[in-house]
Each structure stands twice: as C-alpha cells, then as structure tokens.
Amino acid sequence: MTLDIELMILWGALILYVLSGSLAIIGQIFKKNLEDLILALMAVALIAHTAAIGYRWIRLDHGPFITMFEILSSNIWSLSAFFIICYWRIAVIRPVSAFIMPVLFTMMGWLLLTNPGEGFFPATYDTIWLYIHIGLGKVFMGATLVAVGLSAIILLRNFHNDSAFPKLPDNDSISELSFRFMAVGLVFESLMLVAGAIWAQDAWGRYWDWDPLETWAFITWLLLALTLHIRITWKISPAAGAGLICLVFVVAFLTFFGVPFISTSPHKGAV
Questions:
Q1: Which residues 6+ apart lie within 8 Å of 35 measured at CB?
Q2: Other Cβ atoms within 10 Å of 35 Cβ, number
Q3: What is the mean pLDDT of the chain?
Q4: Dihedral angle over CA of 130, 135, 140, 141, nearest 10
C-alpha cells in the first residue's frame, strides 16, 4: 500500500468534482437541465474520495484528522457528502451547485498541493468523543456551506441581475431556506462545543481553557447565534442576511482551516 495509489485516486476524484462543477455552471448559463448527470458525477467523485480516505486510514491505522492534508481531505469529503444529500433530496437548491462545486474542487486542488506526509497520532485522540466532536462540526460546516450557496444567488440577483436563476423562488423564500440551514448549523455547532468539552476533560483534565481554537470556535458560535437573532428581531433584507451568512462562513472557515495550523497551544488540531 503506497501513497502514490492514494494520490492517484484523489486526482481522479478531483477530475470528477471539476466535471460536475463545470456542468453545473454550463447548465445555468445555457439553461440546460443536467441535474441527473451532475448528481451522478458528484456521487462517483464522492465514492472515489471515500476510497482514498479509506485506503489512507487502513495504511496509517488512524482516521483523517491529524495533518492539514488529512483534515482538508476529510472536510472536503464531508462537505461534498452533505451537499450531495441535499442536492438529491431538495430539488430547489440544485442550482446552487454552480457556486458550491467550484468551492469544493478549489479546496480539492489545495489538498493536492499540500504535503501528504504522515502525522503523529496522539493518545488523546483515541476516544469516541473525538469522532462525535468532529462529526458534529462537519454537519455544521455542511449546513453553512449550503446556506452560503443560497446567499450567493441572493447577492447575484441584488447586485447584477434580478432575473438570475429564474427557476428558483424569490429572494425572500431563498433567504428563509438559507436561514433554516443556518439554524441547523447552530444546533450542530452547539453540540460540537459540548462534545469537544467532554473530550477535553478526558484528554487534558479540563472542559475549557480558552485556547485559540476553543476561543475562535466560540466566536463563530456567537456570530452565528447573533446572525439568527438579527434575522428574527430586525427583519433584515435578504441581501443583508446573505452578507451575514457569508461572514459567518468566512469566520468558520478560518477557524477550521487557519487557527489549528498557526496555534502553538495543545489544542492545535494538527500535530
């Protein structure tokens, strides 16, 4: 079992992600119904990606949550899986694949430019609470990504062309759906923080220590909760709501992919 085989599988997955994203964009530009083909390509890409992660897991005997390479790969996988399920079950969101798939295959390109070397698996990671904590966080990011895709449509209509994506409902309806996904995200991020605190107690003998990753995860939670509160209390416009959702996603993205790799604290996410 070699790294070269894993990378070949990942390159194959990248090609399929790019094809599905390109068809999503082409379908929107030329008003073609390519949804079934896009779904099939995304599903095959996810299967290939799953095979690469499984191959690495067997080869190294630990899950994909140590190095930047592994964390990127597992997060791209979970974001793709969440979106594919939503694409399959919620027809109204299918046009947002023109925004979401380019994000995913750009991240996949970033992954393949990252050092794929092995990392040290600490004893504190050998607990079921790590899997629960990470799994909840991945659902949070997936829900936020779908909300961002919907928000991109609102912003495009607002700043460029009110008739863009004519098959979709009006901006008020899209905004309502996007905030429903954000509410799902809030639930899962809240559970992620609780599971993380339980893991921290097992691993380091304390529930919370305000290290950089914990602090920024809490800031993300506060910003998400504030965004939902503003939406309910002030009845803001769809465009303003879309802007807030994008802000939450940026902060969450930096928390997931920035802080763990620049922090020198024990809870740095990668070792």
A1: 27, 94
A2: 17
A3: 91
A4: 100
